[in-house]
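mind reviewing this fold:
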Amino acid sequence: MPRESEIIARIKARAGAASNNVLAGIGDDGAVLKQTVRSNLIMCSDLSVEGIHFRRDWSDPFSIGHKALAATISDIAAMGGIPRFALVSLALPRETSSDFIDQLIEGLFSVAETYDVAIVGGDTSSSPGPLFIDTILAGECDENSAVLRSRAETADIIYVTGSLGASAVGLKLLEQERPNHPDHESAAGRRLAEQRASAIKRHILPEPRVKAGAAIGRAGLVSAMIDISDGLSTDLKNLTEASGCGAVLEARTIPIAECAKLLAGELGDLDPLAIALQSGEEYELLFTSSATNRRKIEILFDELEVPISAIGRISQQKGLFLDDGKLIDLPIAGWEHFV
């Protein structure tokens, strides 16, 4: 079966040239549409499918609803926009209980209210198989302020918000059915238990960087941006391919989540750096900016109280490389549908 990127490329080729009102179409986190003289509309959609994006044996219905809509809200943030309106469609197995549905709805509305998003409609259907949720989001940005993934330039600095690896650690803990640590008495045991809880929460209740994304859009300091949904290495690949360039990451500067450092060994002798490079569903923002903007970027994020790290540079040479004392090809091993 073709890869996800190949399927999207086929759809894009069939769609052909967009009208003048489509400022950015298929191939980014969302479509940017001309709305008024002063603002543009951003449209995004996501599917959340049982067995792929969540499992009922470790996600309660509230967190399933939360995560489904949070992922789409993150796409708006990655375009530098403000999320406004959502359509949510549900396909539910017939045996789904009323209590499950009520909690699922509460999860959807809770995250919507957190980010001032109005759920204004959708559809419902029975499902002969797994539960799935379709979310469509409309957001807005000032005219010409949408940040695309296709405009990174040679020598731009690559930045990422927050830290990476927690979502993958949370997923591993859930897969191995090891959410708790047997030693809760010692300080070290309590610390490990706290890190486990933090990692699992990061995986099942993600928090999109809406405030930071909107500030980036308004400031006009960023050349390209994408959210980390499939993993740093995979999403950087998507950004550089769209921009027609390459990148070099500095291993020592990549912000690794504390839980990845503490728990990697006991989860299967894993490398914390590899976890940070490959961890999907982080929903941090990965963006590029000219070196001349570095101080302005630092001031902006200090004001936002959002941590950022400069992790590398855009290169003219295509391909992704990792500087870990010596330059090596960056392994691409994030999430990929259809393989």
Q: What stands out?
A: The chain has two domains: 4-142, 157-329. The longest helix spans residues 61-78. The mean pLDDT is 90.
